[in-house]
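To close the chapter, one final illustration. This time we ask the reader to focus less on the individual chains and more on the assembly as a whole: which components sit near each other, and how the overall shape emerges from the parts.
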Amino acid sequence: MSKPSPAPGQIWIALPFFIFGFLHLAGGLAWLALVPTLLTGAFYRPDVIAFSHVIGLGFLMSLVAGSSYQLLPVAFENPLFNRTLAKIHLGLHLSGVPVMVYGFLHWHMPVVAVGGTAVLIGFALYLFNIAATALRPFRKNPTTLGVLIALSALAVALGVAVWILTAKLGFAAVRDPLALLGAHTFLILIGFFLLFLASVSYTLLPMFLLVPLPSTRRAFGSIQYLALGIALFIPGQLIAPSLLPFAALAASLGLGLYAIENLAAIRRSPRRLDGALRLYAANLGFILPVALGLLLRALQLAGHVPTLTLHLDTLLFTLAVFGTLACAILGMGAKIVPFLVWQHRYAPMLGRALVPKLADLVYPRLLNLLAWTVPAAALALAVGVTTQTNLTVRIGALTFLASVVAFQFNLYRALTHLWHPTAKPLPKAELRPSLSP
Amino acid sequence: MSELPLDDSTILERLRLMDDPEIGLNIVDLGMVRSVVHDEAGNVSVIITPTSPNCPMHDQIVEGARMMVESVPGVKSADIIMSFDPTWTPDWITPAGREFLATR
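The assembled structure is written out below.
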């Protein structure tokens, strides 16, 4: 039995998103090294909000969007619904994000509105395009279900962002802007990014590890608990704080099941983990602190425990973004970008020449090193935030920045194959004497 | 053309030159090549099962394997069939492939 192959991703859509994202991560880390109070100071400040959008929109969302256009058609087993919409999204995202960040930095809301409108239209196209790809036809599996729920959370988060912005411009009323900001952050971080990560891992990780998904039931369970957490969080944050601990508990259970499922796949794999997969796997080490932090913060907000630190929100942001998401995204990025290059340059030569492997396109030892330095840097940032030590945050940011620069150097090496391919001619085939007739 | 008869093992050896780019192991030791048959006229049929139904390389693997097989002397045509039933399992990896995966 054979089935049609999903259309391969478009290198010229995914790659610009990736490059834009990695540059924002490097820029954000350099900024953090210069101004460590971005993580240790008060968080409702123009520069902190600008910084969080450099990381959230410029880095994370760019990488997720680029990955989506490349990987989700493969995961959904459907071709991308519309490539033109993806290109328009790329243009709107690349032009809108810097304008938005500039507007936040100078606290000039009309400028934020201009950039935000471009980004918002881009998001709308992205949501429509990916949802339409998933639904033609809908194949019920943890990845498709989880991505669709994550897209819904993103849509709600964008609605909340528009509400906040219109209130800032004087067109709407907001009773508690900090509660709305908290809802926006939770929906983006847990509802979209972490749920998206968990969902996509259930297709990607088995593919890379050469194992079937260890437990489809557990994978579905993680999606359902995370979805329940998201559903309970919104009313909890806005009108009924007593729901927040239940929301956090459900989300934490979902995250826990995600980590267990990923670890089970890693344990069963016949394959020794390479540097990229080790870097990806490092994200699992941050799941428990994120889950515990989420529970503690929810109990604080519901008034069940005293406020131990005013920076728990920042700590959660640090652990989730620089720990879990950055490790996972950089690990997968170390697989995806060389594959994009390989697919574009070498796939047409398959069967006609001896083509290099993905490992030949990069420095594998450098990736092995980054699998240690990136989580160590994230840990240093978390320690710096917890202890409110600017020096520790600065050390973490500089270590992270050095790792990201090394990572980009590795990717640049892969990109050089676009203009300097290294395929060799096939040896001539010869028949050999055989005992068979 | 060689006077030696066409042999399935020659075709398998040829297909060993084709690696899964991400894994770094050739498709034969990876257990993706399920069967190779040929007739006396040199018409070859190869059944390949990808390691994942989500493999983004289906079309390129089929075309690459066809080119590889057709470059073997004595092969008149090659029919590469992509099969997903039964699904690929790690049990199909050869001992040499297992050793490669465990050490690389």
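The CA atoms of residues 384 and 392 of chain A lie 5 Å apart. The mean pLDDT of chain A is 91. With these observations in hand, you are ready for the problems at the end of the chapter.
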